[in-house]
Every structure is written in structure tokens, then in C-alpha cells.
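# step 3/5: fold
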Amino acid sequence: MKINSAEFEISAPDLGSCPLWEEPEFAFIGRSNVGKSSLINLLTERRNLAMVSDLPGKTKLINFFLINKAWRLVDLPGYGYAKVRLKRRLEFNDAVANFLAGRRNLRTIFVLIDSRLPPQAIDLEFLRWLEGIKAPYALVFTKTDKQSLQQGRANIAVFLKAVAGWRAEAPDYLTSSSTTKAGRREILEFIQGILAKPLVV
């Protein structure tokens, strides 16, 4: 798949504020600072399309990017960000949960996992919640350049084993590095394959 155009469209604080349109959407979510914005910039080959920051929790709104004037990438706030008041944190999580459960043209949720780490409880809890609402998702293991290929594969295998506790089959997964640009082609091909299938409502 070739990305001919990519443009930021709008930010929304919650599902009710999101524009209604028919084009397919692909959402990106994960723990804060896992590399969501960097991955979006990698896929679109636009360095500053999505805001990148070393500070966790920088993305606080639902951000829409129109791709090839035909479909959209959605950058969602990361989960697990603690530097907000409890009330705001609960509202923040509600906004994301409502979007993921209620957005009818959302085709796939890409859940980003830091490939350097052992399985994190918050990631596993989030995936179990997605299973509960029967949301379509795929895993993207990020920052694969930060350790050896062998260690990365071993970490991924441990994570998939943890997920196997409640899944009969392993979820679809991909790997990526915003530094080496690894995984860009595979993720775009994955999206293209989904776009080629009719939407099941």
C-alpha cells in the first residue's frame, strides 16, 4: 500500500464529539509512551503528523488523520497515565472505552506493546476487556531495535503465552521500530487486507 496523502483532521474529547462519517478507521492505543504517535508518523512517512513527546500522557484527545482521502488512523490517549487527578483519569478512560466499544466504523484496534518488557498487567487487563466487548484487535510489538532479535522474539513468545490463558488462538501480531522503520510495510499490508474485506455490522 502506498500512502499518497495524510492529514490531521480533528481532535475530539469523547465519542459524542467525534464526527460521523463512513470511512473505515484504525485506532492505535497502548500504555503511555509506548510509541503510538511515532508509529503513525512512520506509517504515513510524515515526521510531524502526530505529536511525539518523551512525556507520558501527552495525547489526551482522540485524534483523527485522513489517509489517501479514503480511510483514517486514530491516535488514542494512552492508558495507564497516572499524572492526572483521579476524577479526570476515570473520565479519560471512559472516553476511550466508549470510543472503542461504540465506534461502528472502527475496523481494527492496534494495541501497542513494548517488546522490551515482560507482560505488563495493565496490557493484559486491557486485552481481556477488548475480548469482553468482542472488539477486533491486533498487537504491534514496538521498539524492536532496542534489543537483539533473539531477545525480542523471546519476549513476544512470553507475552503470547500469557494471552493464551483466555484465547484459543494467538491474536494477530506485528512488530515495528520507528528508528529502523521495520514493520511499516507489514502493518500497511495488514490494513490493506482488512480494507479489502466487507464491513460486517
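# step 4/5: annotate
The first strand starts at residue 6 and ends at 12.
# step 5/5: archive (pending)
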